[in-house]
Structures are given as structure tokens and as C-alpha cells.
Amino acid sequence: MEKMIEDLQTGSSKDEVETQLTIGRHFLKKGDSVSDEESSKLYEKGVQWLIKASKQGSRDATQLLLECLENQKGLADDNIEDIRWCLETPDFEKNAREAAKRLFHTLNPSRMRMTKEDFMQGIANLTMSKSERKLLEKAVKGDDVGEEDFINKIMKRLHGSSRPQLSTSDDVSQEVGFETATPFQKITKYPTMTLAWIANYTVDAAGSQGRVWLYSMIPTHQIYMLLVFFVYSLISLDVILWVLPLLMFYISFIVMLVCTLQMLYGKKKLKDVKALAELLNRFSDTIHTETAASMYSWSSLTPYLSFFVALLFSVMSLSMADRTWVPCSEFTLVSLLLTIASFFALSDKFDYLSILSILFDNISMLPQVIEGIPYIPGVYHIIQIFAGSWYSIEILPDLQIHFGLPSLAYLLVPVLFIRMALKDSGRGTYRVLIPHLVCFFWWRMSMSFYRYSTWVGLIRASVGWVSAVVFLPIFMVIFLVWLTIQLFGVFTLTNVFKMLTSVALLAIPAAFAFWGSKGYKLYSFDLGKSKSTLIKVGLVLIFAASVIPFTFVFTPPERNVQGNYVTWDKYKSLCSKPQWDETNIAHSMVICSHLSNMMVDWSGVVKKVTVKKIDNQAEAFINALPWSMANWLKCTYGEEYPSDCTNLTSTIEQTLCEMNIAQNRNCHLKKLNRYQFEMWVTMVIDNDNMHDIRVEASHWFKDSMMKIQSGDTVRFRAALKSEIGNIWPILKLFYVECENCPMEVIGESSAFYQQTGWHIFVAIRDAIRAVWNFFMAPLLVFS
């Protein structure tokens, strides 16, 4: 045994890995036959030799290490991390690291850190290709390189991403040195670590003891509420429904474009991985080029996954977006260029399956292509035979299955995809199929844009792009001038100041939330390994601050009772004066409690309209601040009173202006008020008796409530809310129209139902249809 250890130390062992495995087994077996005190040392020696063998790819050594970990044999503080690394790391990476280690020893026989000049000289002494030499030269960027640094950089290039790395002895020794140093040595020898420790200790103390007051100092809820109301005051729901689909489309299309460029870059890096694997295989015959290429391909699938997700959003948002703001002709040309680039650059090889799938998909897309062809008698019918549908069956409402040549071609495409995936024992999935799908869907995207393009637009896009490259500097100057003019026309100094203030207010809770999401870390020091309950409560409050404003803005739609409303005659017989005379009001309220939330459709005479409640969360928060800051925020987000009240034409406005100026009130936030109205309606019981009811209306009915006057006859739909059967029952308004108002009052329903209950669902329906037709046409088509 001593001879074997000596051979390993001198490098004369014929099979180094097998020898290390034999020595490790010897010490483990010897430890089983001695006392506990001696066995622990023998176990540690055996584990140490097994770690060396496992790092060089020995599966038997890895299995023995697993048994040692399960039986708690030979475990120590200085080897537990190495054991876990050996158990968690694949055999390929171990072999690759060993090959990289042997390569470093070949370049540097002394096995010490070497300068960049010595490293370059060692590369020059080896026989290798020009591409392999460049790969090794890129591995070193500093002035010198050590063995572990070289191995980690080689592995990073081999995998295309960072992998778990073994800790270097330099890092460990530096931490140990800092812990054992005197206070004076810590300041003079380790100034950076000392400052970091002081900062960590200070923030750790504040974070563990003062998280409650940190949250209380930052009024997150009120700030978000203020910003939400500010946004609501600037834009309407229609604007949001117009902007969001366009924004979603442009973002998703840019994501698809960037992901495609990442794929092209990754394909180029794959060639470097293969060259590096071939180089390492010279120093360890266990490195296989196909295995390295396979691992790199599977680990670099993120751009492909992101591409397919962005594709769904792009198709969906294109159907919802206002296409007058989408240059479809230009996007058609871009999609075609990316189709060609993907076809030639992404797949490993071009076989008949790829070409056939593109050909069959072109045939399946013929119905969309011929849509733009003008109608020519005779010619159109001939084209329709090959590109149209021979027979159609409606299997569901608006869902049809078409039979024809394009449908048959479409059915053959998935069969070809399966054949691609099964090639080379399943390696065709990442080598052929997935890259080909990118090309396939870019072609389908180009056809989607083509449907909304014109021939003039396509010519403009083709010629315009060439002109744009030639005259790009002139176009940039013209664009900047135009953009500056537009910005000056849209943004006044007040609006810019308002935006800057909003950003500053939003940055406070956002920065604190971001810090909390990082676990309250300062540099590499952690303030706590787990989230506290208070942090979770704070996140819930932030979420509530974003959701709660919707309860003030939106009124839910009325329930559809299919015309079966509670009539006034039925209501008064149970819950009004006739019932009161027979029993009493309490008895009536008990019986009528069963009518809660039932829908009514009544007509009556308006007695009065009042404002029951004024809600302004922003003003309530600002009023709690010091007067100077409150006045500044009111003038930033609100409106100013005129400095000269005499210019106002309305007597009421002039009087209000003078009163506020007399009180030194310059600005107000009344545009952020949300009103709750109460309309008193007189209902007829009989010729001698009347019954007053109270109908509550949300802020959305402001225009109607401001126009309706006492004595007007109104027809309304509402839900019985409370005090049912009492003298003045309360109802919740969903629809109102005035039958004899002097001012025009258009029938007004709940704004949520009117604006979103129809438009949003129609847009979502069209988006779902577009996604379905994108993937299933021409076989199954939603009309």
C-alpha cells in the first residue's frame, strides 16, 4: 500500500484512478476492524482518496462516497462540500474537469500559477488548430492564471453557463485570516472586508430590530393609492384598452426578435463547444463531442422557450391591437428575412424532411395567400380548386372543419415533425425539430402580417429599408427634430414636474420592496435567511394598494334575470303600507329580507338628488402632511385656482375662487373626487299614499345625477340592498334613464358593463380565435 501511494506521489502509477480507488477501499476496510478512535481517522483518509478518484470520473468511487455519506463514515468539515460536489456533479463534467486539468499541466508542468506570457508560450508549443488556439487564448483575460481558474473557465465555455464551482484555497485562507486577525490587522490588512463587516453588522441590527418602524416610516399604501388615482385622472379605460394590446404586441415581437438572435449566437458558440470537446478528448478519451454538444444544446434552450411564449402573446395581441399603428408590410419583410436566416443557420443539417415541411406548410397557407388576389372570372375558380376548401362541416358554433388540398398538406406537417424528432435516437428533437419550428413559425408570422399588408406597402418596405440604410443619418436627424417638436407639444413644464415627482414617490417603496426581495442583502452579506411575517404582510399591503382602487372605480354589471324583475306592485304588497297596516314595520322587514339583492325595474318621480359620500384618498393622505409639503403636492398633482377671479364668467366659480384665495388656498385635488350619490324617488302606493325610496348611485352615474332635477320622472333598474320593508329602503343603481328631463339625459348603465363587459370580451374572443387559427388553420377554422 505504501508503494502504491509513493507511485501516485511520483506520478509513476500506471492507472492513477484505479490506484486511488484501491487505496480508498483499503482504508475503509481497515477502519472497520479497529477501535472507534482509530477508525475515524482511517475513514477520513479513505474518503479523501475516494474524492480524488471520483473527481477523475470513477463511478465506483462515487458510489462508495454515497455509502459513506449515508453511514456517516469519514465525514469532516473539510471534506463534506467535496463529497456533495462529487455526488451532485455528472460524470461528463468530472471527466471534462480532469481533461482540463491535464491540459493545464501540459501547458504548465510546474503546476503553479503562470503568467499570461508563459501561458501563451505553452499554447504555442502544442500542436493544435488555429481555432483551438484561439479558444484557449480567450480562456485567460488577466495577467496570470491558476489551475482552478483555468478549469472553471474551460467548463463555463463548455456548458455555455456557470456551473457549481469548488471553492479555492485562496478564498478560504483569506476568510480564516480575517477571523483570526486582531482589530488593528483587520483595519490595515483587510480594509474592504472590515468595512463590509461593519456595514453588515449595522444594517443587520437595524433590520432585525427595526423592520416594523422601517415599514411605518414609508407610507407605501398611501403612496401607491395616490399614484393610482393620479393615473386614473389622466387616462380612461378606452385608452388603456387601446394602448395595452399595442404595447404587448411590440414587446412580444421584440422578444421574438431578440430570442432569434440569441439562437443564432448560440449556434455559433456550439461550434466552439465541439472544437473544445475535441481538444479535451486528446487528454481524456472519455470526452465525447456529441455528449458535449447535447449538453450544451439542452442547457441553451431558454431562448427557444421564450420565443414560443412570446409567439403566443404576439399572435394574440396582433388581433386585439389597432393595426393602423402596426406597419404590417415592414413586419412581413422582417419575418421573411428571419425565416430565411433561421432555416439556413439554426438546423444542423438540411434534409428532405425540413424541405418537405416548409413545402407542405406553404400549400396549407394558400387560402391566406389568395385572399389578396383580385377576383378574375375563370382564373379565380381554378385557383379555388387547389387553394380552397372542397367541403366544410360546422362541428361547433363558428368552428368549421375544412376538407381540401391545404387541409391535407396541413395534416402531413405534424407527421414530418415527429419523424424529425425521432432521428438519431431522439437527438433530432434539439438538433432538427426545435430549430426548425422557429423557422416554421416565423414563416407563419409573415403570412399573418401579409394578410394586413398591401402591395404598395410591401414595395415601400423593400425599397424603404435599403434607403433607410443609405440615408440613416439624415433620417435620424429628422426623427429627432420631429420627436422634440411632439414632446414640446405634449409635455408642458407642469406635466414634466408632475412625472418627476411621481417617479420620486414611487422609488421609495419600490426600492425598499426590491431590497426585501433580495433578502435584505448588502453586497455579499445576508441580513436574514428567511422572510419574516412582517415582510409578507407588507407585500400583501402593497398588492392591496394596487387592487383596492378598482373597488372605487368600477361598478359590477347587473345580474341578468331575463326580464323577471320584481315589480313595484309585488313589492308594495309585501313591503310597504298595506303590509304595515296589517301587521307592523318589523314584521314587514323580516319577510322582505328574503328579497335582498333582487333586481327591480321601476319608474317614479325624483324627490331630490344628494351626494351621500365624497371619497378622495389622495387628498386625505396629502392633508396629513405638513402644510408646505401638502400645498406643493396639491399644486403638482392637482389644479390651481385662477389668480384673477374676475376673468371667470360663472358667478358661482368667481365666488368660490375669491373665497379660496382669501383663505390662501392656491390648489385643489377635486378632480380626484369619487362621489356616491343618493337619489330619492317617490313611488305611488295609491291615490292618497306615497312611498319614498333611496337609490344609491356610484361615481359612474355622475353625469346623470348632475342633470336629473326634482320632479323628473325616471325609469331605473336596481338591486334591493338594505332597509327592505322599512320606511326608506335603499337600492343599488345599475341603469337609469329620464323620461321628461329638461336637460338631455341618455340612458346610462354601469360603466363597467358598458365599457368592459362587451368590448373586453369581444377582444378576448377575437384573440383566442386568432391564436386558434394561427396553429390550426386551414383544417379547423374559427370563422
From TrEMBL:
Q: Which GO terms describe its cellular component?
A: endoplasmic reticulum membrane
Ranges for the Wolframin OB-fold domain?
A: 673-782
Keyword field: Membrane, Transmembrane, Transmembrane helix
Q: Which GO terms describe its biological process?
A: calcium ion homeostasis; endoplasmic reticulum unfolded protein response
One Pfam family named in its UniProt record: WC-rich
The record places domain Wolframin cysteine-rich at 568-671
Give the transmembrane region(s): 223-241, 247-265, 304-321, 333-360, 399-418, 430-450, 462-484, 496-515, 535-554
Report which superkingdom the organism of origin falls in: Eukaryota
For this protein, the record's PANTHER family field holds: WOLFRAMIN
Q: What is this protein called?
A: Wolframin
